[in-house]
Amino acid sequence: MSSISGLVEDEISSFFESSPPLKNNEEIVVKLNQFIELNSSCEGGKRRIVCVTSGGTTVPLEQRCVRYIDNFSSGNRGAASTENFVKAGYAVIFLYRRGTCQPYCRYLPDDPFLECFEFPDAKNIQVHGSHSEAVKMAVMDQQAAVAEGRLLKLPFSTIYEYLQMLRLIATALKEVGPCSMFYLAAAVSDFYVPWKSMTEHKIESGSGPLDIRLAQVPKMLSILRSNWAPKAFCISFKLETDSKILIEKATKALQKYKVHAVVANELLTRKEEVVVVSSSGNVVVRRDSNKPESIVEDNLIRLIVDRHSTYIKESHT
Ligand code: PMT
After folding, report:
1. Choice from 12, 236, 295 to test ligand 1 binding pocket (greatest atom count within 8 A of CB)
2. Counting C-beta atoms within 10 Å of the first and last residue's C-beta, which end of the chain has fewer, N or C?
3. What is the ipTM of this complex?
4. Is the pTM of this model over 0.90?
């Protein structure tokens, strides 16, 4: 377990103290507790619970936000990983950016409502033949996962919402200990405008170029590991566009934040391969190119689940 310096702890506290409070805090806590309770008392024993984060956080530039800075992430990785975790028997808390890819929707067209349905007459709506299998599978799989209590979806938009929700989830999962996992695939802002120094109204565009000073968002991995959920299995991600520095950066993150593994990926090749960097060495995980339907997450989640099983066994000895 890592320990954090007083300085980092102060930066983290001041980030949360100055954040606008979550509007639906109570509702989220209730949902989380019910979900954890349900999955801790299943017939056949407790289920493992993973929090998958997905999509990019936004940084508002105005309190009544018109403009914002965004972090790139389509949400594909998080959504596909969620499906694989459910298949592997996990219950998943899917913390995702509103409007990004959702689990079980991979085979739907990008603009599903416009392309999937047709009106044979004014009173009826039906799924277009070419999409009927994809829609049927998406609806059935998603409904089954929710009905079995294996999928809880919680949306965020801003960095403020994301980090407050991550803290709520981590605190709620603390009791689950080694059977819980964090799989942090979201692209999280590194810079932000502190709420108190942010202008309330839309920034005027008539007064020339805009100067904004962005503060650094404290890295939350350290406090997640040391205080929020120290016994949870923790996987973080490292995204780079320059493959030459990717593994070095991932290795540094592994050592600095004492996570159990870092999934290193390069922007252009992220759908073909990733490297799982951990203290037991680096493993390249690829999509099975002989199977057109194969995705890198099939093999990645298999490896992560194996590592998690070993971690649980070792925690009990
Ligand atoms: O969504 P897709 O289009 O499918 O793409 C997937 C992906 C490329 C977004 C994903 O695989 C990925 O790499 N996600 C992490 C990208 C990222 O933000 O990396 P980073 O180097 O900025 O952050 C590294 C880690 O630190 C992350 O696990 C993040 O959760 C954590 N972090 C970041 C900022 C911060 N203030 N606190 C943090 O704890």
Report:
1. 236
2. C
3. 0.95
4. yes
